[in-house]
Specification:
The complex is a heterodimer.
Chain A (H helix, E strand, L loop, with lengths): L8 E10 L5 E12 L9 E5 L37 E5 L31 H15 L4 E7 L1 H12 L4 E7 L7 H16 L15 H15 L2 H7 L19 H14 L4 H13 L10 H4 L6 E7 L7 H14 L3 E6 L13 H12 L1
Helix pairs in contact in A: 1-2, 3-4, 3-7, 4-6
Chain B lengths: L7 H8 L6 E5 L5 H10 L2 E6 L2 H9 L3 E4 L2 H4 L8 E7 L8 H11 E9 L4 H10 L23 H10 L3 E9 L2 E3 L3 H4 L2 E7 L1
Parallel strand pairs in B: 1-2, 1-4, 2-3, 4-5
Antiparallel strand pairs in B: 5-8, 6-7, 6-8
Classes of the chains: A alpha/beta, B alpha/beta.
């Protein structure tokens, strides 16, 4: 058995890892999982990229929450991304808090956590770290890269920055840039964390994190993952375990109770400084920016095939953003497929049961 | 893989497609024509389709198909991006058929357009004698439910092509999938035109 492959792997790659913003990490640790078998000519590898608060536990039980992998509806035996056929890789992003180098990692220069000394990273840096992992795993060219939300940004960025490393790109519920509204919501979350007295300029102890601030950040963000219609259907104005409003500030409404629960359970598994750094990386993301705003030039001469999926009720990364990418790919002459699927569940739709999405991904990978 | 036989109107369109051409099929449905062209003529095909389920099916066939609307989305494609652009049985559903025709010959070196012929004798009979909007084999939906909002006859189409300064490279009238030599505007249920700028 090759030690590089399997569940709960970690690799530390020595040597400077230069970042887009000018910073340098003296070493790079990547925590990842693989499923399935890499075939003899290394042609069946698929990289799945996770979203803002995701991790490498794509299709295996999460060690902290005990919950199943975050995309088992798409990845697993009998699913469109089947480990029987594909060698599937998922890595915790650079800046993350599940084992890859991030602000909570010790700075090898003094052994203390980086905290806010951690350099600001970008989506390109995350992708460069993935490429280092592919080198380590002996994967010259991926059959496909698949990602939703921030994972989709990484997928697009991989195709733009490293076009020879991947043949097919699946970008779901995503955008090629962060909009003013996207940045605005992230700023609310960051300010909530930094306003928590326990944040301590990022130097909080592991057992005393700014949990209240991080929970509020999660609550605000969680609203953006749902839809107005979805919230109305799920909660309406229904009250939580009571017959009448309390004329106080308890969680009278079910929707309040739900959001508080989302906030509280999130802080059990996520690091506040990681949240700051990863949201910042997303805000800085604009694939067209190095090309004078011309997104088509980011994909000029691309040998990759692309499939994009958006959802009707996703107002975080709405269909218009996917269409903008489709337009650019058409202008660049790259083969692109795109479909907008009906769903009432907002941005989160890509993580829920989506039979049509599964059909598209399955067909696109197989063809 | 044995290619699935084509619908007769699509077969007439497919016959005109050269080997290895770069083809855009507008209103490609589930991609039957594009898959056939790829498998039998080595065509590099792309598609545009309104219906999400059809797009999913087409992508499942390994085709590059974008969900979109020919009335608005053709502007996204560069000039002469394709050897051939196909618009089969969809012109009559366009908001702005003349603008779409102009786009077809801009993004394609040539275009094949097929449409139901409103000059067909059954249509004329239905209106003249029955006094009712026709419901026929090629126009099976009643007037208030049809997505077809811009009907024309073969003669009308010829007049529009001339008005737009388009070159008609080839014109055929079909009846039940067979070419009609005589009086196509009366006897053909479908017109198939090959156009260029």
């Amino acid at each position: 058995m090759d030690e590089r492959f399997g569940l709960d792997r970690t690799i530390t790659l020595a040597g400077d890892f230069a970042l887009a913003g000018g910073g340098v990490l003296p070493q790079l640790t990547i925590a990842y999982e693989t499923y399935g078998r890499l075939n003899a000519n290394g042609s069946n590898a698929i990289l799945v990229c996770h979203a803002l608060t995701g991790d490498q536990y794509l299709a295996s039980t999460h060690p902290r929450t005990g919950k199943p992998g975050w995309w088992t509806r798409l990845v697993g035996p009998g699913k469109p991304v089947d480990p029987e056929q594909w060698f599937i890789v998922c890595a915790n992003v650079l800046g993350g808090c599940m084992g890859s180098t991030g602000p909570s990692s010790p700075d090898p220069r003094d052994g203390q956590p980086y905290a806010m000394r951690f350099p600001v990273i970008t989506i390109s840096d995350m992708v460069a770290a993935h490429v280092r992992l592919l080198d380590h795993l002996g994967i010259a060219q991926l059959h496909a890269v698949i990602g939703g939300s921030m994972g989709g940004m990484q997928a697009l960025c991989l195709a733009a920055n490293h076009p020879t490393r991947v043949r097919k790109v699946v970008a779901i519920a995503t955008a090629a840039r962060h909009s003013a509204q996207n940045i605005a919501f992230h700023e609310v979350g960051r300010q909530a964390i930094m306003a928590d007295p326990k944040w301590q300029d990022g130097l909080y102890a592991p057992d005393a994190p700014p949990a209240d601030g991080l929970a509020v950040a999660r609550m605000a963000a969680h609203i953006t993952y749902l839809s107005e219609a979805g919230l109305t259907e799920k909660f309406g104005r229904r009250l939580q375990n009571r017959d009448a409003v309390s004329f106080g500030f308890d969680a009278d409404f079910q929707v309040e109770s739900y959001l508080r629960h989302q906030g509280l359970s999130f802080v059990e598994r996520f690091d506040a400084n990681s949240y700051l750094y990863i949201t910042r990386a997303m805000d800085y993301f604009d694939l067209a920016e190095p090309f004078g705003g011309n997104l088509a030039r980011a994909f000029a001469g691309s040998p990759c095939r692309f499939a994009l999926v958006s959802f009707t009720s996703d107002w975080l990364y709405p269909t218009a953003e996917s269409r903008r990418i489709v337009r650019a790919l058409n202008a660049a002459g790259a083969p692109v497929s795109f479909v907008e699927l009906e769903s009432p569940f907002g941005h989160d739709a890509f993580l829920l049961d989506a039979p049509e999405m599964n059909r598209v991904v399955h067909g696109f990978l197989a063809a | 893989m044995t290619p699935i036989p084509l619908r007769p109107d699509l077969a007439a369109v497919a016959a005109a497609v050269p080997e290895g051409a770069r083809v855009l099929d507008i209103g490609c449905g589930d991609g039957q024509l594009l898959a056939w062209l790829r498998d039998t003529k080595g065509v590099e095909g792309r598609g545009i389709e309104l219906d999400a389920a059809d797009v999913a099916s087409a992508v499942g066939r390994g085709l590059a198909v974008v969900q979109g609307d020919a009335d608005t989305d053709l502007a996204d494609y560069p000039d002469a991006a394709f050897d051939l652009v196909i618009l089969s049985n969809a012109l009559q559903a366009m908001q702005r058929p003349a603008a779409v025709l102009a786009e077809l010959v801009r993004i394609g070196r040539s275009a094949i357009v097929s449409f139901p012929n409103f000059g067909h004798w059954r249509v004329r009979l239905s209106l003249t004698l029955g006094g009712r909007m026709p419901v026929t084999r090629s126009l099976p939906v009643s007037w208030h439910e049809t997505p077809n909002i811009h009907f024309c006859t073969i003669a009308d189409f010829q007049a529009l092509a001339a008005e737009l300064g388009l070159t008609v490279e080839h014109a055929t009238g079909l009846s039940a999938g067979r070419p009609i030599g005589l009086w196509p505007n009366l006897l053909a249920d479908t017109g198939v035109f090959r156009l260029s700028r």
